[in-house]
Amino acid sequence: MSVDPPQTWIALAVALVLSAVLYGPPRTSTRDYAVCSSTSEGIYTVDPAHPTVQCILVRDTHIADTGSLVDITTRSRGFLDFWRPSLNVSFIDPKSIIVPGLADAHAHILSYGSMKLNVDLSGCASKQEVLERLVDFVKARPDILNDPSKWIEGMGWDHNIWAVPEYPHADDFDAEPLLRGRRIYLERIDCHVAWVSRRVLQLMGELPNAVNGGQIVRDGSANPAGIFVDKAKSLIPVPSPSEADMLRYFDRTVKDALAVGLTSIHEASTDPDAIEFYKQYAESKKLPLRLYLMGHLSPAEYSGDELPRLVDYGVGGRLNLRSIKLFVDGSLGSSGAALLEPYSDNPATSGIMRIQEDVLFDLVKRFHANGWQVNIHCTGDRANRAVLDIFEDVFASTNLSEARPRIEHAQIMTPDDLERMGRLGVIPSVQPTHATSDMWYAEQRLGPERIRGAYAYRTMIQTSRNQILPLGSDFPVEGINPLLGFYAAVTRLSVSGQSPHGPQGWYPEQRLTRFQALKGMTLDAAYASFSESVIGSLTTGKKADFVVLDRDIMTVPESEILGTKVLATVIDGEVVYGGL
Fold it and tell me: pLDDT value at position 79?
C-alpha cells in the first residue's frame, strides 16, 4: 500500500530525531559550562591570537572554546541539539576579570608550611621581638613547654631590618628564662643562614675551623657564635620532618596557595624524602594543584640515577619531576652572594662559592646528557658568570629551546652577561619581590655601578631571544600571594608605595609592563616547565585553569592592585577555591 507524501515526511523526521538522540554524539555535555564577562575585554587569555575575550567554554577539564557568548553558544550546539539542556552560563561581576591560573616559578612548599605552623619570625623588627615570639610559641605548646628536649624551629628573622643590623648570638636566647637550655633552630628569611642556641652548639661538639662553601661565624673570642651560613648549616643536627609533618605543612601551603589564585608551583629544591612524599600522595589521590619539582641531593654530586623521572604522574597527572636544582652561591642579604669584586660595605669578603667550577661543569654535563633540565641558583655576578660559562660550553651544540636551562634568581649580573644570557637562550627565573625587599640595602652592598646590573628585569626581556621571563616569589622568603610579585614588577615599590628613589620606583626603567608581569606568572612559567602547550593561557585545547579576580589588575591604579581579592580558583575546570 502506498504512503502519501505528508506521512512520509513525518516518519522521516521522527526517524532522524530518534537516530540523533540514540546515536548522535552530544556537542554539549551536562558538564559543559561557560564563564563570561559583561564586556568583550573582561577575560585576559595571554593568548596573542585572542588577548581578551568575553567568554570561555569549559568541557570537562579543558577549554573547549573562547569568544563572544553568541559565538561559543552557536559553536557548542550542533544541528538537532534543540532537545538538549541549554548551556550553563555564569557571568562574573562587571568589575571582575578572569586570568589564566597563576604559577609561582620558584617556591619552597614544605618550608612555607613549616614556617606557618612553627614560629613565623617574618617582620620581627628587633632581636627582642624574635625572643618574644619564641616565648609565646612555647607557652602555647604544652608538649614543648614540658619537654626541653623538643626542638623549636622557626624562620623569617632578618637582621638587616634591625636597628643594629648585626648577626645575633647563641647566648641571646638566655635573656629569656623560658628559652634557656632549649634546642632552638631559626632560619634567616633567605634560608641561607641558621641561628642556633647554646644547647644546640653543645650537642654539635667540636666544630671544624672552616667549611667549604659555607661559614661558621665566630665571636670576638673565636668561639662559634651560633650562626651557620650556607653549607655550614649541614652540620646542625636538626631533625628531618616526619611524613605526618610534611602532610601538615603541605596542606597548609595548599590552603593558602589556592586562596591567592595559584594553580601551579615550581618547587625549587626537593630532597628525596619530599619527592617520595609527593609521589605517594599523587599515587593515592589527585594533588590539589600542579607541582613541578626540582630534585636536589646534598652534597652536590650526580644523582640523576637516584631520582625518579616523573612526567604528568599520578592521579590527574599533576606531578612532574624532570629537573635538577644546583646551588652555586648564597644570598645578598647574608653577604653570601659570590661577587667578582669585594662587597662595597665589607671589602673583606666577596661572598661564598658553594661549589667549585670544575665540579659544577661535570655535574651540568652529566645531568644534561641524561635528559635532566638543569636549574642553578645564582645570586652574585661571579656565580652567574661561572654558570653562563658552563652553559655556553655544555650546550654549545644543543637546541636550548629543548633543554631550557634556568638560572634561579639571576640577581646581579654584568651588562655583558645580561646580554649573553639572552643571546644563549638561558631562562632567568626571577622574583620581583626580592628587588623591593633588597632595595633598601642592595646599593650599599654593591655600589653605584654594579647595582645597574642587579634585578634588571626589563633588560632581561629586551635581551632575551624569546622574551621569556618566568616570575616567582621564593616563598616563604617572600609572601605567597602572586600579586605581591605582580605589583613589585610593575611598580618597583614597597607595599607602602615607597622606594629609595621615591614614588616613581627603584630604578623605574626596569619596571615590567602589566602584560609582561601577567605573562611571566602564567605562560612564561609554563614554558620554563615544558608545559606551555597544556597550561599558561586560556586557549582552546588547554587545561581549564583560571582565576577570577574582583578587579581589573591590568587597568586599576597601581595603589589598588594589592587590594585585589581572589573570588574563585579553578583547576581542570573544577572550582577549588571560592565560587563562580
Answer: 43
The Cα–Cα gap between 424 and 175 comes to 54
> What CA dihedral angle connects 469, 470, 473 and 475, to 10 degrees?
-150
415-424 and 381-394 are packed helices; what angle lies between their axes, rounded to 10 degrees?
Answer: 30
Examine residue 299 and say whether the peptide bond preceding it is cis (omega within 30 degrees of 0): yes
Residues of the chain with pLDDT under 70: 1-30, 78-85
Q: How far apart are CA 41 and CA 513, in angstroms?
A: 18
- Going across the sheet that includes 62-67, the strands are 62-67, 55-59, 33-36, 88-91
Q: How far is CA 342 from CA 169, 445, 476, in A?
A: 25, 9, 29
Q: Are 542 and 263 in contact (CB under 8 A)?
A: no
Cα distance between residue 471 and residue 409, in whole Å:
10
Quote the CA–CA distance of 384 and 382 in Å, as a whole number: 5
Given a contact cutoff of 8 angstroms between Cβ atoms, the answer to whether 474 and 423 are in contact is no
pTM above 0.90, yes or no: yes
The C-alpha atoms of residue 22 and residue 539 are separated, in whole angstroms, by 32
Separation CA 379–CA 574 (nearest Å): 38
Q: Are 553 and 541 in contact (CB under 8 A)?
A: no
Three-class SS of residue 448? helix
CB 506 within 8 A of CB 499: yes
Q: Give dist(CA 19, CA 216) in Å, integer.
A: 80
Q: Could you give the CA distance from residue 181 to residue 198 in angstroms, rounded to a whole number?
A: 7
Instruction: Give the H/E segment covering residue 545.
Output: none
Query: Which single residue is written with the C-alpha cell 632581561?
Result: 460
CA distance 392 to 77: 53
Q: What is the pLDDT of residue 22?
A: 39
| pLDDT recorded at residue 84 | 57
Q: Which of 337, 419, 424 is nearest to 377 (CA)?
A: 337
How far CA 458 is from CA of 248, 422, 554, in Å, comes to: 39, 12, 18
For residue 521, the tally of other CB atoms under 10 A from its CB is: 32
As a whole number of angstroms, the distance between CA 454 and CA 432 comes to: 11
Cell of 280: 605517594
- pLDDT tens for residues 315-354? 999 999 999 999 999 999 999 999 999 999 999 999 999 9
Phi, psi of 135 (to 5 degrees): -60, -45
The model's pLDDT over 189-210, given as tens digits with 9 standing for 90+, comes to: 999 999 999 999 999 999 999 9
Position 444 scores a pLDDT of 97
Q: Among 388, 408, 510, 502, which residue's Cα sits nearest to residue 453?
A: 510
Say what the pLDDT of residue 342 is: 98
Q: Which sign, positive or negative, has the C-alpha torsion 7, 13, 16, 20?
A: negative
Those residues with Cβ within 8 angstroms of residue 204's Cβ, 6 or more apart along the chain or in another chain: 235, 236, 237
Q: Are 482 and 104 in contact (CB under 8 A)?
A: yes
- Spatial separation of the C-alpha atoms in residues 580 and 575, rounded to whole Å: 8
Q: What is the pLDDT of residue 3?
A: 39
Nearest-Å Rg of the Cα atoms of the chain is 27
